Amino acid sequence: MIKTIDVKSGETAGLYQYLSAAVSPRPIAFVSTIDADGNKNLSPFSFFNVFSVNPPILVFSPVRRVRNNTSKHTLDNVHHVKECVISLVTENIAQQVSLSSCDFDAETNEFEKAGFTEVKSDIVAPSRVKESPINFECKVTDIITLGEEGGAGSLVLCEVLKMHIDEDVLDENNAIDPFKLNIVSRLGANWYGKTTKESLYEIAKPISRMGMGIDKLPQEIRNSEILTGNELAILASAENIPEKKEFSLREEKHITEKHILAKEFLSQGKAEDAWQILL
Ligand SMILES: Cc1cc2nc3c(=O)[nH]c(=O)nc-3n(C[C@H](O)[C@H](O)[C@H](O)COP(=O)(O)O)c2cc1C
Q1: Residue 17 maps to which CATH number?
Q2: What is the per-residue pLDDT for 207?
Q3: Cα 101 to middle of ligand 1, angstroms
Q4: Residue 67, pLDDT above cutoff 70
Q5: Per the domain annotation, does 206 fall within a domain?
């Protein structure tokens, strides 16, 4: 059974739950801004992502409160002072970040309330967060208002002027190591995601290679009742059907047995052997 939601007649609070739990996990922008009087603000936003590399653009969205249709201080601030620092949220600071999301009044400095250390930025007026390993100093280039009712978001387009990365999260090639970074994500309700060895895995897709596609697999493989769509996709990521080689395990095996063995090889990352048993 499929539950279908007619968004026009649904109430906003319910829709909020479904949308935010469905579109997940989301990265979290920890946004530092100042108001026209110089009051500091620091708040998390998981309606957030990177949308362009050249120019480098990050976008986050403060949403008007559903319960009383008020706007977030962060949004008011970027309308007046068009700068911010976006910091990324790692496991060791996630509870502090959650604390900073309380509805403190505009004069309250969440750096102090949630126990963060301010570091003066190089280019922009808002401070960066010492405890976060990655900070982006940004210029707010545009704010796109999506509505006036409770639940309406505003897209805050932020051009990155400077990026600060703690070298402790880099690997030997100077690339960001996901396990050293330990980024936290937001799901629905009170759920957060960690970056653990158990939850991450790699899908090899060398950019130089063009997979043949599932439509090009021999029918017998494509219609397998044993191999899943994911497993067929691994086989179909090969450029061509490989050449049949001597492969003792293949001999006198029924098709079902071959598919079971191929499944086993694929689970061990041995795509070449999976192909050989199937040929
Ligand atoms: C992890 C996390 C993610 C959040 N994401 C958003 C979001 O994307 N949009 C939003 O409007 N509020 C979001 N919130 C709630 C705001 O952080 C909260 O309303 C905060 O008080 C806003 O502060 P401000 O009024 O000082 O800007 C989030 C809260 C947490 C803890």
Answers
A1: 2.30.110.10
A2: 64
A3: 6
A4: yes
A5: no
Q: What is the mean pLDDT of residues 27-42?
A: 97
For residue 250, the enclosing domain spans 214-278
Cα–Cα distance measured from residue 49 to residue 61, given in angstroms and rounded to the nearest whole number: 10
Our answer on whether the CB atom of 30 is closer than 6 Å to any ligand 1 atom is no
How many Å lie between the centroid of ligand 1 and the Cα of residue 121? 23
Confidence of residue 206 (pLDDT cuts 50, 70, 90): low
Residue 198 belongs to a domain: no
Does ligand 1 have an atom closer than 6 angstroms to the CB of 44? yes
3-state helix, strand, coil in the chain (%, to 5): 30, 25, 50
Task: Please name the amino acid found at residue 106.
Answer: A
Domain count, the chain: 2
CB of residue 109 inside a 6 A radius of ligand 1: no
Length reported for the chain: 279
pLDDT tens track for 129-141: 999 999 999 999 9
3-state class (DSSP) for residue 97: helix
- pLDDT recorded at residue 252: 83
Is residue 186 within 6 Å of ligand 1 at its C-beta?
A: yes
The pick from 28, 42, 45 for probing ligand 1's pocket by mutation, whose C-beta has the most ligand atoms within 8 angstroms, reads 45
Q: Which of 193, 227, 254 is the last residue of a domain?
A: 193
pLDDT at 203: 87
